[in-house]
Each structure stands twice: as C-alpha cells, then as structure tokens.
Amino acid sequence: MQHEEPKDQLTEAALGEALGEEPRARELRLMAQVLANRLQAFKNEFDETSEPARRDKLKREMLKLRDQILVLAEEADITQFVEDTVRLGVEMQRSEDY
Fold this sequence. Notes:
By secondary structure, the chain is mainly α.
C-alpha cells in the first residue's frame, strides 16, 4: 500500500481557509470524469436503441449531463486558480520569512 507524503500543513491550512468545505479542483475533475463516463454509456445506449421514447429520454439526460460536465469543468478551473494563488502566496510568505 502506497502512502502519501505528509502534506505541507501551512499550505493545507491556507487552502482550507480559502476554499472552506468546497471540493478541490482534483475532486471536481474526478466528478466531471464520472459524469463523462455516464454520458458515454448513454450515448452507446442511444445508438443501440430504436425506441423513440427511450431515445428522447436519453437525449434529455445526455444534455443534462453535458451541462453538468461543463459546470464542473468551469468550477475546477476556478478552483485551480484559487489553489495556485494560495500556494503562490504561501511560497512568497516563506521566501520573505527567510
């Protein structure tokens, strides 16, 4: 079993303060990937079915998923910016302390 290296406590505290309970960018990207996998499964089912009612339902679901994926991707980008800014601030503070 692999163990992660201990995280920088100062950086983690600053990230926690900036983001609160909001998920990190990595988590948001993972959520988007899960939805993208589901979207692909719906696309496959859509291609395989000829039943109009089922195709309509799948189409609506695919549109919803696409929108959710776009929102998660945007949130991940914004969160990544915040995380990078916090990390830079912590590093700048450290360099001033030395």
